[in-house]
Amino acid sequence: ATYTCDALGVWRSEELGTKLPSCQPVCGRPARPLPGIIKRIIGGRNAEPGFFPWQALIVVEDMSRVPNDKWFGSGALLSDSWVLTAAHVLRSQRRDKTVIPVSKEHVTVYLALHDVRNKMEAVNRTVERIILHEDFDIQNYNHDIALVKLKEKVTMGKYVMPVCLPQF
């Protein structure tokens, strides 16, 4: 469809009127193609910026946690506001040995991050909501899955892109 700007400053097309089509970035297709990488952690090689634009770093800082008050996990960007991660990343063992979900106020999500030691260049977001699988079992890690809703949407681009999901 071809759009023109009318006298009122509204984009119009003959086919769609003022309804603009949605534009979704192509998922899982890094701007920088992956060279023949050996897909392993040990004995592999360092990834370069942009190779995994859906990768998220989840940082939890909770002073009541045992033994550490700060820990990291990983996630995958599903859309401009949702990240998929493991439920165990978002659980906290307290000093009294109870295990409870972490508070959303203690979680920060980083995207477009290449080096975890340098977060200045990354896109960071606070969390609006955490959803843990209701049957998650900390003993055997069954149902170890969670969703994190970002408080503010991220802008898609070369270094921030959602992971591909199957189409049904």
From TrEMBL:
Signal sequence annotation: none
Gene3D superfamilies annotated for this entry?
Complement Module, domain 1, Trypsin-like serine proteases
Keywords noted in UniProt? Disulfide bond, Sushi
Q: Give the GO terms filed under biological process for this record.
A: complement activation, lectin pathway; proteolysis
Q: Which residues form the Peptidase S1 domain?
A: 41-168
Classification via InterPro entries: Peptidase_S1_PA, Peptidase_S1_PA_chymotrypsin, Peptidase_S1A, Trypsin_dom
Q: Got a GO cellular component term for this one?
A: extracellular space
**Tell me, what is one Gene Ontology molecular-function annotation carried by this entry?**
serine-type endopeptidase activity
What this protein is called in its record is C1R protein
Gene name of this polypeptide: C1r_1
The record ties this protein, via Pfam families, to: Trypsin
